[in-house]
Amino acid sequence: MSHQGIVSANCEMEEEVWLEARLAQDDVNKRVAMINRAFQMTRLQAVGFPYLVVAFCWHWRRFGILRHGLLHCAVDRCQGTSITMEQLPLGAPIADAELVQPRLDTGLLHQKAYRHVTQARRHHLKQRQATSLHVSSARLIRKPLWKVDVSHAKYGEMALLLDGLTGGYYVMP
User: Fold this and answer.
1) What does 68-120 look like in DSSP terms, one character per residue?
2) Sign of torsion, CA 75 18 5 124?
3) Which class for 96: exposed (0-12), middle (13-18), buried (19 or more C-beta within 10 A)?
4) How confident is the model over 124-134, as pLDDT tens digits?
5) I need a surface site. Which of 23, 76, 98, 125 has the fewest CB within 10 A?
6) Is the pTM of this model over 0.85?
7) Domain ranges of the chain
């Protein structure tokens, strides 16, 4: 693949892997209680959300020393939103997880990752210290999420989506 300065390293997609669930299934009830002590958990479902993670590397010379940069960009394979990650904590798949099916083309996601990383390191480009980006690897991953149905005496029934990496939560409509 080549796209405006991307130099591909003949990477082939490896089989899909999972990120480590730092919020383990046993700890979900504690996390729900931290959100609101009045929540009563009624159902718990593991969800594997699809991402494409592209690792970009670049080289530059400063004060006569060759330096290297590496940045991972994770692009949501359903909506196309992207985030940068410095590390990829890989883990084991979660048993009986609901696997969300990807909706977007992988080629489009590679371009999105390139634009995201280019913007993230824009200050290097302005100083002309960095050379073109090289794709060092591309992986299909699943991010662990927990879908939790809760009941609350005042607010009734609702669903929460807990991030298995950060413990962050979203109230689902």
Assistant:
1) EEEEEEEEETTT--EEEES---EEPPPTT-EEPPP-S-HHHHHHHHHHHHHHH
2) positive
3) exposed
4) 556 555 567 88
5) 98
6) no
7) 7-172
